[in-house]
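[job 4471] stage=fold_predict status=RUNNING
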Amino acid sequence: MSRNLFYSFFLIIGINGITIGKAVDPKEIDRREILFVGENRQEYFSLFKSSLHFTVYGPDTIKIYARKAIPSLDHKMHSFGYSLVLNKKDTTQKQFKKRILSSIKSAEHKRHGYSSAGIYSLPIPFGKHEIELLPLSK
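[job 4471] inference complete, writing structure tokens
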């Protein structure tokens, strides 16, 4: 697979719990990528070819931040998204169309920038819940 094709499908996900303000890590912790958003260091997780699994406890509201890796000289709009499955039954598809945001950098991928964030808020009912994020197929 060519390097450009890889990055055209590369999507990164960050999930934050709102009420306690802490990040929720997936079970696939090895797919972490550090992005520098302005002066801040943020953790994201790659959603490429395989899913991410999270365990969350409610009641709470989580925010999912999704960004797409884009070659740094490309300034057109790019579509990206994911499917969210809650407790293996409720499925929601989220789709975003964003441009590259110049203030976001990655030490690992110097020739690529990242889109502005596609943000989705999900209310979580009381109890323990499993969330699976799946890449949208092209």
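[job 4471] summary: The first strand starts at residue 11 and ends at 17.
[job 4471] exit 0
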